[in-house]
Amino acid sequence: MKKWIIILIGLLLLLSWAFLYFVPQKVLTMITEYEPYTFEQILQNDSAREHYGIYDNDDPTDYGYEDVEEVMFTSDYDGKGLSAWYVNSAPSSGQCVLLLHGRTSNRLKTMKFLELFKTAGLDTAYNFFIPDLRNSGKSEASSTYMGYRFADDIASSMKWVRENQGQDTVILYGFSMGAMAIETLLAREDLADEVGQSYVSKVILDSPLSDVKGQLWAGASDLGLPEGLFDYYFQDFDALVDGFGDEMAFGYLLSQNSRPTLIMASDTDGLTPYPLLINQLDQVGDKRHISFHTFTGVPHVKLYQTDSTKSRYTKLVSEFLRQ
User: Fold this and answer.
1) Is residue 5 part of a domain?
2) Which of 10, 106, 179, 210 is the right S-S partner for 205, CB 3.0 to 4.6 Å?
3) What are 253-257's contacts with CB under 8 Å, separation 24+?
4) Pairing label, strands 199-206, 169-175
5) Is residue 269 part of a domain?
6) Are 176 and 146 in contact (CB under 8 A)?
7) Is residue 92 in some structural domain?
8) In angstroms, what CA-CA distances link 119 with 122, 134, 275?
9) Half-sphere exposure (CA, 13 Å, Cβ side) for 247?
10) So what's the pLDDT on residue 2?
11) CA 192 remoteness from chain centre
12) How many CB atoms lie within 10 A of CB 168?
């Protein structure tokens, strides 16, 4: 009997060790690794086209934009190859809108917002840059770290439109993790020089990831990881993002960025939880630069492509840009 008790205790210790090691590793993998969504996966699948809201459209020319260039450039951080569309819709304008997708997505998903600008009569006021950020679309595979490395790619995108197209003013328009990447970019001291060389006039955030640590803790707690152990292993992520992990939260980030900022979110968003966003907004002291609008009953990043909310969404964006 004693022998079996010893064996049982040994098995329990082994299982405990496995839990303490493999669960945090799984959480960290969820943070850093995911399969890129290629153009072929979307364009060759009708249900994926519908999910992206692009239907029969393949590129910006299908939205009535004639002067479209596909470009390749590199991220200044590590030389990763990046791909993008530059839409020259306002040749005499020095203003460019960057449409920035989120996690497990690519630029095909954001190109439909070109339709919004036509509807609002703003298509000739701006040029557009629509990149595949790293690990997306036609760009090179790489870890993204919840938008931290997306921020490097956005900085390189801003540099490209400034140096190659003379666009000295940009509007950053981001979705989900792309929204977090924008705010991370604007608060990172190591990217301040690049941001400083381009004038970021306004920011639009759709269904934003607002609290990286809170979001990751929600996933870790679902896997049964104790909070104390999660905090310990979060340090691994923090090291990967140069000690910026705790700062990847809107309470901090929006307090560092006073540019006019439009935020739109659904109170039933299942991927970037609304309560996390509200909690973070409550932590922002001066909110005078923030225009925040709630939608009800709409899925993640579907505010524009949902019939019942499309008109309101278009009006909010149009009025914000015209202010």
Assistant:
1) no
2) 179
3) 253/183, 253/184, 253/186, 253/187, 254/183, 254/280, 254/281, 254/284, 254/287, 254/290, 255/283, 255/284, 255/285, 255/286, 256/186, 256/187, 257/183, 257/186, 257/187, 257/203, 257/289
4) parallel
5) yes
6) no
7) yes
8) 8, 30, 32
9) 18
10) 57
11) 19
12) 13
> Domain of 192?
33-211+248-322
pLDDT bracket for residue 25 (50, 70, 90): low
Nearest to 156 by CA among 107, 191, 104: 191
**Structure tokens given for 26:** 């799984």
Q: Are 31 and 218 in contact (CB under 8 A)?
A: no
Quick: pLDDT tens for 40-57: 999 999 999 999 999 999
Domain holding 45: CATH number? 3.40.50.1820
Q: Which of 244, 275, 108 is nearest to 175 (CA)?
A: 108
Report the chain's mean pLDDT, rounded to a whole number. 92
Angle at 254 between CA 101 and CA 104, to 5 degrees: 20
Task: Enter the pTM of the model.
Answer: 0.92
